[in-house]
Amino acid sequence: MEPIKVAVQGALGKMGKEITSALCREPGMQLVGAVDIEAREGSLAKPDGSGSVPLSSDLDSILKGCQPDVLVDFTIAQATMPAVHIAAPRGVNLVIGTTGLAADEIKEIESLAIAYQVGAVVAPNFALGAVLMVHLAKLAAKYLDYAEIIELHHHLKADAPSGTALSTARMMAEARGKPFCVPEQKQAARSRGEQVEGVAIHSVRLPGLLAHQEVILGGPGQTLSIRHDTISRECFMPGVIMAIKKVVGHKGLIYGLDVLLGLKEST
Ligand SMILES: NC(=O)c1ccc[n+]([C@@H]2O[C@H](COP(=O)([O-])OP(=O)(O)OC[C@H]3O[C@@H](n4cnc5c(N)ncnc54)[C@H](O)[C@@H]3O)[C@@H](O)[C@H]2O)c1
Q: How far is the centre of ligand 1, averaged over its atoms, from the C-alpha of 143 (Å)?
């Protein structure tokens, strides 16, 4: 079988470097081109030492010259939409991990994918374990009435609480159809984190951490803890590789790794 030919936009970034390495290790996939606004050289040495691929800041020329089946995009939100407008008309399928896309931009990606009959996978989180953590927390939310979240991240993270913690609390409440119970306290508490749907979210910021989240549910005489730890960016690679395999046979949009894994119906 022919290998799936893949180009990576954002190839010089932290995720781009991890993905170009993963593609070189993956049987049945071939890295054929690289794009980055910071590109200064005309070629990118393959991380496995097996030669090089064309590298440019001009996406159109890379797509024209390399004819990839899939474009993987991990850049910034402002770069993603122009890339979709260039790639979809060329019949190139899309795997997008860039975060910060607005709801109307995601709708636009869907419309373009349908119009040009290509596949698009957009997932704000490609870490299988993180998606499973939220799925399991949603399941447990129906049976235990109290929940708190501790999220722990590196000290340079801009926001607190994390977007993942906020959306986990909201999805858990949605799964049970009502907010969680809040423990009664005799005295006004001075430090109970941010309250979201009855879930207190506590944020830890320390050098040495990467991205971690623990959901603790409580009921009479018992607690249940569901924890995910990101040890390195490698954690995103199985999800990205899975998306590349899936997207070549798909027409239209798949939004979220949970949908790709069959954990959730597409909405
Ligand atoms: N979906 C996920 O699971 C997941 C995981 C990690 C990071 N991300 C997201 O992926 C994106 C990239 O993260 P990162 O840590 O690799 O960032 P980074 O800053 O290390 O890399 C981004 C790269 O994109 C390039 N770039 C910027 N604008 C461009 C443009 N117009 N055209 C071409 N290239 C351009 C930059 O030069 C840089 O090399 C962010 O949006 C981040 O939030 C998503």
A: 39
Report the chain's mean pLDDT, rounded to a whole number: 95
Rounded distance, CA 157 to CA 178, Å?
A: 31
Indicate the pLDDT class of residue 163, thresholds 50, 70 and 90.
Answer: confident
Whether 157 is catalytic is yes
Mark whether 246 is an active-site residue. no
Ligand 1 pocket list (CB less than 6 A): 9-10, 12-16, 35-38, 74-76, 79, 97-99, 123-127, 236
* Whole-number pLDDT of residue 186: 81
* pLDDT number for residue 243: 98
Task: Specify the DSSP class assigned to residue 89.
Answer: G
Q: How many residues does the chain have?
A: 267
- In this prediction, residues 123-146 reach a mean pLDDT of 96
CA dist., res. 14 & res. 74, Å (int): 9
13 Cα–ligand 1 center, Å: 6
For the chain, domains (ranges, CATH) are 4-122+233-260 (3.40.50.720), 128-230 (3.30.360.10)
Contacts of 178 (CB under 8 A, 6+ apart): none
Q: What does the longest C-alpha to C-alpha distance in the chain come to?
A: 69
**Of 157, 202, 245, 246, which one is the catalytic site residue?**
157
Amino acid type, 254: I
